[in-house]
Amino acid sequence: MARWEAMKLRADQTGDRGLPMPLWLQGGLESAQAAIISALVVIAPIVAVWATSGFGSAGFDVLARLAGQAWLVIHGVPLYLTTVGEGSAARPETGTLSLLPLGLTLIPFLLAWRAGRRLARASYTDQLWQALLGSWLVYAGFGIATGFICRTEDVEVFLWWAGLLPLVPFGLGMVIGARREAGSWSRLIGVDAVDWIARTSQHSRWAGSYLASAAKAGFVAVIAALAISSALLAVDLFIHWNLVVAVYEALDAGPVGGAALTIAQLGFLPNLAVFALAWLTGSGFALGVGSQVGPLGTAVGPLPTIPVFAAIPSGPLDFGPVALVVPVLAGVLAGWWFLREGENHFDEWLSIKLRVRWLTAAASTLFLALIVGAAAGVLAAALAWLARGSAGIGRLSDIGPDPLWTAVWLAAEVGIGVVIGYAAGPWLERRQLRDAALGTAPSGQ
């Protein structure tokens, strides 16, 4: 096993090396650095708004708790809210703030990715767990301390969630960063996957490569659909830009307040991209309890004065059903990609068992559509689950797409596209080869 360069502590500036830093300590320092930087990123806009009297006469302790609560939210920790209405007979209302700003969650993820690469360079293959364990313990402790300090009578934080949930984006980023530095899982964890696969039977390898290629095709379909959804979201914002600007002007938050509001909306931009994906599938998404936004119809109640909400398509959508074609096109791309991958071993196995080619071709293509559609549906359900949540108390306790219906709609549409793409793939391949041959043919022939 190759050894990565170990990080050393300098005794002085003369070049003499001191004792090597323990891996658990180095991991803890990397985590502390990432936690402090992510906290400063959250604190900066809050302090800027406070400096322009955006929070009235709120004291520093209120700002510190607000910043800590925001830090917990971008790590996926739910906040349990309690409000009491006016009047002696008013009853307290409870709700949960669990809407995760995926764009801001990238901050701790990228910091952890950097830390994972640094720790991988400083560790032996069989010692990396020490650095990871030390870093995760420190980050969990930082989350627990933040949750304990930032609890108030109106905002409750479960300390277990405050300690464990921040480890999800942070731990994932650290593992991916370490894998990126190591170059392979075998160098990272000491297990050679290629050697393990080589010891399995040929039938197991064929089945594994078939399922792996089908899962990759489902990933291709979701990424393609998400890319088109993001592009259409940008077009929709451009078309309704005058309405968005009108909401900004009505709020009159000033330069600093407007900038902070824009940063918050940018933090939810990946969520909006997933909302757009759900809209294109036909399942739609909710903007409040009992509301529905989709290509087949839109019915929403009163919404907060947030500029991006002004771009929601409303009124009669005569061409709304055309949006359902987008996931089908993504499935066509996935089917063509699977054909080029050349791993349809199930079709080969059926061809050996049955000599009726039209039957085996149809059966294997339908089965492929089922597998790829299911893979795309599972991934879409995960994205919808991450993007949805509750924004507090009242109607806004239900925001985002429904994971189950998003998965069902996308799986069905991608499956239809896979059948078309896999069937048309040979014709597309022959046409590309013919065009390439004509393009390279000598002049005069």
TrEMBL record:
Q: Answer whether the UniProt record assigns the keyword RNA-binding to this protein.
A: no
Give the transmembrane region(s).
Answer: 31-50, 62-81, 96-116, 128-146, 158-178, 219-239, 259-281, 293-313, 319-339, 359-387, 407-428
Q: Which InterPro entries match?
A: DUF6350
Organism superkingdom = Bacteria
Does the record carry Zinc-finger as a key word?
no
> Which keywords describe this protein according to UniProt?
Membrane, Transmembrane, Transmembrane helix
Q: What's this protein's name?
A: Integral membrane protein
